[in-house]
Structures are given as C-alpha cells and as structure tokens.
Write a structure and sequence with these properties.
Number of domains: 3
Largest sheet: 13 strands, mixed
Shape: globular
Distance between the termini: 47 Å
Strand content: 15-25%
Oligomer: single chain
Structural class: alpha/beta
Number of strands: 13
C-alpha cells in the first residue's frame, strides 16, 4: 500500500487541511518523514486560549525540530525540497485569547508585545486575532508605549477597567481610542471590537431589547475633548486601514469621540462594516448633529451599517420633551433629520439595521407612481422569514437590499401612525426588504417588494436567534 508521502506535496497538504490539530499531532508521531511533512499544516492555524500556551508556542518556534535527514523517496516526490525548508513552521492564522481573570499579573504588555513580535519575525505573513478579556487599566497603559504588528483583529472587553483608575472618564476613554485607532500600537489592525461593559463575549446580552440601556449622561462634557490635549492635529491615522469597526455596549463613545472618529480628514476608505450598538453616552436628540454626520459619511462608505441608539422609554416626561426637541430641531435643520439622511444616501447600501427613537415615512424612497390594483403585491415571499439570524444573508443572496428598522418611541413630529409606516413599506417597488419592529410585545411586519406583508411577533421569535457574534455580519 503506498504511503501518503508518495503523493504530490500539494495533494498531501490538501488532505491535511481537513484534519483536526489532534489528528495532525498523531500523524507527526508516525515517522521522522511525516514529522517533517506535517509541520506546515500543523502550524498553519493555531488557537491559543491561555497565557502559558502563548509562551510555549514562542519557545517552540525558536527551536528547530531535531530529526535525521528525510528519505530519498520523500525528497524525490516532493520536488527536491531541502530538509531546512520542511522544518519551517509557518503560522498563517493565530487566534489568541487572553483573560486577565485567569492569569492576572502574569499578562503584561511587554511580554505580550515581545511574544507577538517574535511570532511576526518568524512568520512574516501571520495574521493574528487578539481577544483581551477583563482587560486591566494597567495593561492598556503598558501597551501605549509598545507595538504589536501582525494583529489584524482586536477585541477588547474592558468591563473591569473602570475599577481603581486614576484617570477621569474623559481622559481614560481618550486613551482607549488612541490605543485602538492611532495606528501606532496596532499598525496592521483591520477589524476592531470594543466593549466597555462586559468582561467576556459570553456576558453580552443576547436579547436584542435588553441591550437598549437608557441614556446615562456620560457625554455631559461634550466640549472637553475638543482641546489640544485630547485632540491631536492629525488624529487616528489607523482609521485609513480599518475594514470593520464594532463599538458595542460601550459607555466611552460619546459625541466628541464620534466626531473625532468620523469628522476627521482621515477617511476610512476600506471600511465595509460599522456597528454602533448600546452606547448610552450618545443621546439620539442632544447629539443629533454628530449622528447625522456619522450617517452621512458611513452610508457612503460601508456595505453593512448597524446603529442602535439608547432607549428613552423609561421616562415618559423626558420622552415627550425629547420628542418636542427633536421636532423643533429637524424643522430648523432638515439636513440633520436622520430619516432625510437615510433616504438621500442609504439607497445603495446592502445591509442597514437601525434602532432609533423617532422615525417617519421620509425614511423610504419616494414613490414614482401609486401602485394600481393590478400591480399590487400578490402572495407571500418564497424566502422564509425564520430563522431571523440568517435572514439578512438569505435576503441579499436573493438580490435584495436588507433593511431592519426598530421604532423605539414614536413618529417624528407625530406626522404618521405606525399603520401608515407599514402601508408605506408595502408600496415600495424597489429591490428592498424592510423589517419594521416596535417595542417588545408589539407586532412587527416584513415587507418584501412585490409580495404581501408578513406579520410576526418579535418578542418571542426575534430575541432567541439574535446573533451576538463580534465578527458576524
């Protein structure tokens, strides 16, 4: 029976790509030849979830495997590869998860930077995903003076950082933004997730409506960041290379930080995905200027945009006051009316997910003609509504643009009823799919151009399959 090593190297590596790391480890112990042959697939993709494993990986990469010369059969079949070439351990993808609750003071910025630097020097093309759970304030401060190349994805869970800090909230939040977006500490960063409420992804609430925290007033110092100390002349050079930005469950993102990110001259031209979810320092009425600026820039850049603003429903008097303020503001400044901005610039974006306090039918594209009885929608969509988690992808695969809209409070200036909004969604003749939802307990409706309306109850159906994955679309 012929040996696997008699196969062409490309075919051998293809077979190895289907094996789990444990299987590859067993294969490496079969013979000296398989030990050498399996080095590349064994080290191509590595997952590390403990600090001690990171140290072992770096030590292993520094040591050359000691074996005898490869056999003449293998050298003949594998295009005369040298023994030294087969010994190389070339990491392609490294998923590194560090948890300060487990390793505490062992995890220092200097050691992590040295380890990642050693991996980068040995494996030039390595792409590293770095997840930091329960990140301490001391660790963040240590990283300020260091560089971590080859880190293309970063997930920060800063729930514990608010304890034992010597900085003010404004100073500390600015340090976080400089760490992530300056381009100095993470020069190769492409995708980022920042959460300041939770210490781990498993702690993030998976109920969509549970994520809507009320506004907490953190942005009372709206103008404090607009100083030379906190606002450098050329801010955030790292933005130019960003592909995905997810700022979710984040109390550090206020209006001034939002302006520095999306009003600067550094245009994130590569950005395809932007999510801002549950950031209670952003007030949907008081910070309307910053939000409209965000939408104007993002809708012209990204392919997927999610914007979920804070919930004002807990205080009826404040809601009424804010609704009056919002109406007066958009009457005076229609260019800041979020519905107008979305209608003007949001027609081509493939995926749009919004949760805003006030909406009206200006969010829909204008109708060319009124639909007649003959052209009215007939039948229900062939695409199944459930499961909700995969609906956006299935809708886009059918050639539609996906729109998901949550009305948290009411209608802009009380101009229209919810029934009117649903009727307007029914009249859409473009290639858009609209999901209209309201507060828990209310019924939602799905509108797909060319088909009849589908009604459903979001309270039971929407929250269970809600996908909280930090890198998922």
């Amino acid at each position: 029976m012929p040996s696997m090593l008699e196969l062409p190297r490309e075919l051998y590596l293809m077979i190895c790509s289907y094996l789990e790391p444990t299987d590859l480890t067993k294969l490496a112990g079969v013979s000296r030849d398989t030990y050498l042959a399996v080095q590349q697939p064994l080290y191509a993709r590595i997952n590390i979830t403990a600090y001690a494993s990171l140290i072992k990986l770096v030590n292993t990469l520094q040591r050359v495997p000691v074996v005898s010369h490869i056999s003449s059969t293998q050298r003949l079949r594998w295009f005369k590869l040298a023994d030294s070439q087969l010994r190389e351990r070339d990491i392609k993808y490294l998923d590194l998860v560090l948890d300060h609750r487990k390793d505490g003071q062992k995890i220092t910025g200097a050691i992590v930077a040295n380890c990642i630097g050693a991996i980068g020097r040995k494996c030039y093309t390595a792409q590293i995903t770095l997840t930091l759970n329960a990140t301490s304030a001391d660790f963040v401060k240590q990283l300020e003076r260091l560089g971590l190349p080859n880190v293309v994805r970063l997930a920060l869970f800063l729930g514990s950082c608010g304890k034992k800090m010597t900085y003010t909230r404004e100073e500390w939040s600015w340090k976080v933004w400089e760490l992530v977006f300056s381009g100095l500490t993470f020069p190769d960063l492409r995708k980022v997730y920042v959460n300041t409420y939770d210490d781990h992804e498993d702690e993030v609430p998976d109920d969509l409506f549970a994520q809507m925290r009320p506004w907490d007033g953190y942005s009372h110092a709206y103008d404090k960041h607009r100083t030379a100390k906190h606002n450098p002349p050329t801010p955030f050079h790292g933005l130019g290379s960003m592909q995905e930005i997810v700022l979710a469950h984040n109390s550090y993102l206020d209006a001034s930080a939002l302006q520095c990110l999306f009003e600067s001259d550094i245009i994130p031209g590569r950005l395809t995905k932007l999510e801002i979810v549950d950031c209670p320092a952003l007030h949907p009425v008081k910070h309307l200027t910053a939000l409209s600026t965000l939408l104007r820039r993002a809708l012209q850049l990204v392919r997927s945009l999610k914007l979920h603003l804070c919930d004002l429903s807990g205080y009826h008097e404040e809601v009424t006051f804010n609704e009056m303020q919002y109406g007066a503001r958009i009457n005076k400044h229609p260019e800041e009316h979020l519905c107008n901005v979305i209608r003007e610039l949001g027609q081509t974006i493939p995926s749009l997910d919004l949760a805003v306090p006030f909406i009206c039918d200006r969010i829909f594209p204008p109708l060319a003609t009124q639909p007649t009885v003959e052209t009215a929608a007939q039948g229900f969509p062939q695409v199944p509504l459930h499961p909700f988690g995969s609906l956006p992808g299935r809708i886009r695969a059918e050639g539609y643009k996906h729109r998901q809209l949550y009305c948290l409070e009411g209608i802009c200036r009380a101009a229209h009823s919810r029934k009117h909004m649903a009727a307007r969604a029914d009249m859409q003749t473009s290639d858009h799919s609209w999901l209209l939802l309201h507060l828990p307990g209310d019924h939602g409706s799905w509108h797909l151009s060319g088909y009849s309306r589908v009604k459903f109850s979001p309270h039971k159906e929407l929250t269970e399959p809600y996908n909280k994955g930090i890198w998922a679309l």
